[in-house]
Design brief:
Helix Hairpins; Heat Shock Protein 90; 2 domains; two-stranded antiparallel sheet; 9 strands; about 50% helix; binds adenosine-5'-diphosphate; binds magnesium ion
Amino acid sequence: MERRSLAPYLSGWSVAVALRDPEALAADQRWRRALRFGVVAVSVSMIALGFMVSLRFIGRELDVARMKADFAASVSHELRSPITQIRLKGESLLLGLCDDREEEQAAYHAIVRESERLSRLVDNVLDFAAIERGAKRYTLRPGDLGASVRRALVSMEGSLEFKDITLQVELPDDLPAVFHDPDAVGQCVINLVSNAVKYSPEGERVEVVARQRRGTLRGVEQDLIEVAVTDHGIGIAPHDLRQIFEPFYRSRDSLARRRKGTGIGLTITRYIMDAHGGDIEVRSKPGHGSTFTLRFPLEPPDRKLRGGAPPSSTPG
Ligand SMILES: Nc1ncnc2c1ncn2[C@@H]1O[C@H](COP(=O)(O)OP(=O)(O)O)[C@@H](O)[C@H]1O
Ligand SMILES: [Mg+2]
């Protein structure tokens, strides 16, 4: 910057500079201090916020890692227990250790029941892996949803008898055809009914009811077919309701923890319902029981596919 003296132009003059409003300078300084403080405070809060978000993220990752470890442990446990039962009962029959015909029959029943349990577990684990890879496809065709539900229930008779659970079924014969994949819908029903049985005391009642009604699905009012599975068991706490569909999530409630499980049944069920253009709803009251409702649209998920090749679907 160039500096010039005023002396040649204003000789004999002296110049005094006075502030008209001395408060203004003080106010300006205060404002600058406040601004500096504000900038520092915002930066510190941003750093703190970032730190908290990272901690939360790490916490969630650790939670998922812990749930995955629990999953691996529970799958091995759930595999081992039916395999042991099948081997024991098979050996008893082979070695003629059963005292009478009744005991023999009980052993055969146990083998069938435990193999069904084993095959349900393997189906769920394999399907879950395929879903994770994005490789799971369903073939939807118009068909009798009631018949698909009934077939699934028959395959569960052994488990119901074992816990002395009474199954009350209401499947009207006159339901309109629904676009669905019978095996996948069977898997949903099996997952819900095995939960209903697992989380109910012995001797309880489980209800499976199908009905047609109008309702709102994905924001659109339309005709729906619902399949509701109701139990009168331990129920689910409100804070768990939001999470039970997440992979590996199992309630931390001690009553629920007493039952073994893998935490993937409801995740698969929700995925299958998505693929059908439907959804799954849950209502529950701790200590009173739960109702899980599968809701199917009457119209095929993709109208364009009507009358053409059977739609293959994965959730979008
Ligand atoms: N009918 C039910 N009654 C009470 N709790 C249930 C019921 N169905 C599901 N849950 C809760 O939701 C969790 C997730 O269910 P699911 O995915 O089927 O896994 P799990 O293998 O544990 O049964 C269960 O661990 C349990 O806490
Ligand atoms: Mg389950």
